[in-house]
Amino acid sequence: MPAVVIIGAQWGDEGKGKATDLLAGRIDYVVKFNGGNNAGHTVVVGDEKYALHLLPSGILTEGVIPVIANGVVVDIEVLFDELTALGARGVDVSKLLLSGNAHVITQYHRTIDKVTERFLGKRQIGTTGRGIGPAYADKINRVGIRVQDLFDEKILRQKVEGALDQKNHLLVKVYNRRAILVDEVVDDLLAYAERLRPMVADTALVLHEALERGETVLFEGGQATMLDVDHGTYPFVTSSSSTAGGAATGSGIGPNRIDRVIGIVKAYTTRVGAGPFPTELFDESGEFLRKTGFEFGTTTGRPRRCGWYDAPIARYTARINGVTDFVMTKLDVLTGLERIPVCVAYEVDGVRFDEIPVSQSDFHHAKPIYEELPGWTEDITGARTFDDLPANAQAYVLAIEAMSGARISAIGVGPGRDAIIQRHDLLD
């Protein structure tokens, strides 16, 4: 049985939760391997809508064991808030496993994230202010706090003291903020220790043993390829590895265990935060996509920047991740458009680029070269087979597939859990 990775193939918010939920009935473990509570999945189950920020969306499927692996940074307060909210709605959250090697977001990470972003002014990255970047920075600087540290007060205190020695100088002398006390951080974290203890496990070993038993493990990426710290539109990126390669380092399983990589794309493109976005629309078409697609962040509520589908980005993400299958979401949002432009290449200072320019400066100045495809007016939200789609909608999907570097195996046609067309088996 396979190990399957689901990743965002644009700038996030593509509907990864819906794809995970689609497969969850056939899998045994769902693993979050990167990021933190700076992104969210919205999953609609019947008449119920669930907004998840830190938990893997597979937690909504009975029988699946959800795992938060070592590559995640964990805001413990957010974790327990989500668990409590889901439990109150009848969701079984008792099976959740948390890696003892995952790093913890503390109050000083959140503070530094917010004041640093304000300090940058016009050079702001567009972070969510939830402490994700500073927590990852501490991890790389080897001054981070891990989940396992909460079970040894002496080690925890030493690590917090070491971290605050430097950070309080920064807060007080550069940002004119008050110093953060060691005791308040330690006391805050220790308050969660006993509640955390039952869910903490050697998750890398658990996942290895599951794969050895022939069970199916799904790795659910946060954010998306174009936000990856190595392969995204740096510096307007997240702080973790959100590509398929990140699933191995972020969970502790070997890369040779990964059988399939499923990339999620919208039928158009969106982005939250600053950074280049060649197909971004500033007219009524952009507003149409935003309103019709309800393009507002699950975590922040911020309106998303909207634009047409970008085929060079899809080809790039297919190559970087080794995508075997694409899932296209929100095809229904395009219903009613007479013509639908698709970006097939870029123009930079009179030069055509069929692939993403390697130079950041060139990509910032890239202008999209469009081909227009005919639209459709028929309601497609009830379609459940490819043949149910109107001819122009079918032609749009096939044209996108030919441009994007991998087959489109499933198509989302509405927000509901069952509003999806499967063209190919995602696990075959």
Automatic annotation (TrEMBL):
Homodimer. One of its GO terms (cellular component) is cytoplasm. PROSITE patterns: ADENYLOSUCCIN_SYN_1 (PS01266), ADENYLOSUCCIN_SYN_2 (PS00513). Plays an important role in the de novo pathway of purine nucleotide biosynthesis. Catalyzes the first committed step in the biosynthesis of AMP from IMP. Binds 1 Mg(2+) ion per subunit. Pathway: Purine metabolism; AMP biosynthesis via de novo pathway; AMP from IMP: step 1/2. One of its GO terms (biological process) is IMP metabolic process. Its cofactor is Mg(2+). IMP binds at residues 13-16, 38-41, 128, 142, 223, 238, 302. Belongs to the adenylosuccinate synthetase family. The keyword Ubl conjugation does not apply. It is found in: Cytoplasm. It holds the Pfam family Adenylsucc_synt. Its EC number is 6.3.4.4. It comes from Microcella pacifica. The keyword Ligase applies. Substrate binds at residues 298-304. This is Adenylosuccinate synthetase. Its main location: cytoplasm. PANTHER family: ADENYLOSUCCINATE SYNTHETASE. GO terms for molecular function: adenylosuccinate synthase activity; GTP binding; magnesium ion binding. The gene is purA. HAMAP family: Adenylosucc_synth. It catalyses: IMP + L-aspartate + GTP = N(6)-(1,2-dicarboxyethyl)-AMP + GDP + phosphate + 2 H(+). The active site is at residues 13, 41, 139.
